[in-house]
Amino acid sequence: xxxxxxxxFLLSGAGFMLMAAVGVLRMPDLLTRMHATTKxxxxxxxxxxxxxxxxxxxxxxxxxxxxxxVFLLMTAPVAAHVIGRAGYFVGxxxxxxxxxxxxxxNYDPLxxxxxxxxxxxxxxxRETRDTDTP
Amino acid sequence: xxGATWNLLLALAWVVLTGDFSGLNLLAGLIFGYVxxxxxxxxxxxxxxxxxxxxxxxxxxxFFLKELVVANLRVAxxxxxxxxxxxxxxxxxxxxxxTEIEITFVANLISLTPGTLSLDVSDDRRVLYIHAMFLDxxxxxRRSLEELERRAxxxxx
Lengths: 134, 157
Known about the structure:
The complex is a heterodimer of chains A (134) and B (157). In chain A, helix 1 (2-26) packs antiparallel against helix 2 (30-56) and helix 2 (30-56) runs antiparallel to helix 3 (59-90). With 134 residues, chain A is mostly helical. Chain A has a domain at 2-94. Chain A contains 4 helices and 2 strands; from the N terminus they run H-H-H-E-E-H. A two-stranded antiparallel ribbon of chain A has the order 1-2. Helices cover 66% and strands 3% of the residues of chain A. Chain B has 157 residues and is mainly alpha-helical. Helix content of chain B is 59%, strand content 11%. Chain B has helices spanning 2-18, 23-40, 53-80, 100-112, 138-154; strands at 89-94, 116-121, 127-132. A 3-stranded antiparallel β-sheet of chain B has the order 1-3-2. In chain B, strand 2 (116-121) and strand 3 form a beta hairpin. The longest helix of chain B has 28 residues, at 53-80. The chains are: A mainly alpha (134), B mainly alpha (157). Chains A and B meet through helix 1, helix 2, helix 3 and strand 2 of A and helix 3, strand 1, helix 4, strand 2 and strand 3 of B.
């Protein structure tokens, strides 16, 4: 019984990672590639780690597997965000099928200022916060 | 944060007083401390709402895992079928999160759910720009993003 569950976890984890690899090859532009790689690979590794902890069933191994999952969940989205953001602002072309882009009109490539599009009266007179860059 | 510290201190006191230095006994101490804090939270202002956080966190974890798997399958389906079903685009999402840590948390969660990738925050920190893969139903997407944000912020407030 436990063998079947373990195999299911391992196979589905490997399947998700295969999906991520195929996605990198097939996806049309940088941002959609980031979609394919980060999330599917994260879920794949998490499933494989669950299978590992089921197989060994020792406190030391389970704790480490848990640690792997937690650190992956903490770092993967940051890496995806940084790569995607850098790629976008460097000017990598979006796919021709892209429906809309609400960021482009709000971004000033000279001053690197990114507006929110919500600049209303209230926003203009708002008090400065300590998080603002001078 | 104060509640969590007290919970840990109570657990340590339990371990010291029972004289059994094992992980299982520490867990028992944590549970007893949690129950104690849940009982006295109505008398102590600093602990208010502490006990409600754990079930909320567990609910959030379940909700998030469900979203993760469902959305992953959707992206996987689009990868393996030859025609592209996706309609990607960049949308601006007004943020309810105000502090830096809340924005970081929400942006990371959005990046983790497949089909959405947080690109940048506007300079005044009021809008999060998100690259989404499936814009067929923009209203539905915005609604689910807002639900994710609301649930995530409930953990902080």
